[in-house]
Amino acid sequence: MFEFITNNEDRGQVGIGTLIVFIAMVLVAAIAAGVLINTAGFLQSQAEATGQESTDLVSERIDVTSEVGIVGNASNGTLNEIRVSVAGAAGSDQIDLSETTIEAVGPNGQENLVFNGTDSVDNLTANQFGVKDDNGNFVSSDNAVLDEDSQLTIVLNPDVSPFGSSSEPFGEGDTSSLEIVSPSSATTSISLDSPDLYEEDGEAVRL
Description:
The chain is α+β, with helices and mostly antiparallel strands. Helix content is 25%, strand content 33%. The chain has 2 domains: 1-59; 61-206, no CATH class.
């Protein structure tokens, strides 16, 4: 009924074959375990990175508190300065406005604006914005830093693209849209809508 292997050489060959199969199974299991460990490590790292990005998007969000225009010439219906007051969102870390960008669309086209540590709105070109402190003074990059307890003002030149031109500045009835993008890519979108009529030179009108 049973076949017995009496030849020692045959027994050795069967034993070696079994050992080879066993070693192969161990190797396959080890490789599979290594793949699983690597995959788990990758997924954990990816989850941590995604979580950090989500945290940054919340902690570096910029809140806009007001948008006003300073009338340059009421008779001509034009502005000489656009001011966007900003603050860090509740619980935010420090936000460097000198590393912030603004995607602006207006009556005279589209521009990506970057920080310029100027001391005059007239020095701001088509792709630049300035920053003022609470005292109305322009600041350098070292002081253009927001947190939840501070407020700064982004200054835009209405005489340059995309808002207007030297011959036709941003003014009565004009509109523009801004996307303020923090260094962590948190985006705040606002619309600037100028009134249809200005009353006097130097007044601040809500946009």
